[in-house]
Amino acid sequence: MKSMRILIVEDDELLAAGLARALATPGYAVDRVSTGEKALLALGIEHYDLLVLDIGLPGIDGFSVLRRARERGQTLPVLILTARDAVSDRVRGLDLGADDYMTKPFALGEFEARVRALLRRGHHAQSAQLSCGVLLMDTLAHRAWLADSPLNLTAREWSVLEYLLMRQGQVLSKDKIMQAVCSWDEEISPNAVEVYMSRLRAKLEPAGVYVRTVRGFGYLLEEAGNAQP
């Protein structure tokens, strides 16, 4: 699994902000929009791993957003989050292609669990475990090890390392890394990426896992046997 990007479409600003904070804590990149029109625009320009979608939106409602997304061939998991609890609304949402349906009010813990389940389902064909030499990352358990020793990472370090692990053998530019791990409303500079890389090097290189700088292009994750000078 790669670093996950989630789009929240919710016109209740307080609720949307609270959900975004909860999902950002484990390291997801979270974008928020408040209308159906903005949701369709976002879905057209970004790749998302999950859509959290309110139905009662101003302008284009959530059902229309879902229908248009599926007509475009977009297959990302969709969690409908709405105050509408009528069976007919549930049936309509599921028939349009929603993967799950939660009614407000709801428990935050249950919401987070359903998000995790949908992300796992959306990436069921890919292993939850990523490795590079003695480095092992379990993206479901959200734990990492160097050999048999637990590797402690901040949320941002986790997201950056996960992105590097998913793309071993590829040189990744600072811009790609920033886009993968940051939400729209976050500001992170290229210098900050260098800081995260420096921290990861300090933790990984003693065990023989290297984050190599390819001057002018970006970064490459390698294990000791493949590292180049």
Description of the structure:
The longest helix is centred in the middle third of the chain and has 15 residues, at 108-122. The chain is α/β, with parallel strands linked by helices and 229 residues long. It is built from eight helices and eleven strands.
Distance between the termini: 29 Å
**Strand percentage:** 15-25%
Largest sheet: 5 strands, parallel
Helix-strand topology string: EHEHEHEHEHEEEEHHHEE
Specify Rg, calculated over alpha carbons: 19 Å
How are the strands of the largest sheet arranged? 2-1-3-4-5
The secondary structure category is alpha/beta
Global mean pLDDT: 86
Total strands: the figure is 11
Blueprint of the fold:
Layout: E1 5-9, H1 13-24, E2 29-33, H2 36-45, E3 50-53, H3 62-71, E4 78-82, H4 87-96, E5 100-103, H5 108-122, E6 129-132, E7 135-138, E8 143-146, E9 149-150, H6 155-166, H7 174-181, H8 190-204, E10 209-214, E11 218-223
Parallel strand pairs: 1-2, 1-3, 3-4, 4-5
Antiparallel strand pairs: 6-7, 7-8, 8-9, 10-11
Summarize this structure briefly.
The protein has 8 helices and 11 strands.
Descriptors:
229 residues; alpha/beta; four-stranded antiparallel β-sheet; five-stranded parallel β-sheet; 40% helix; 8 helices
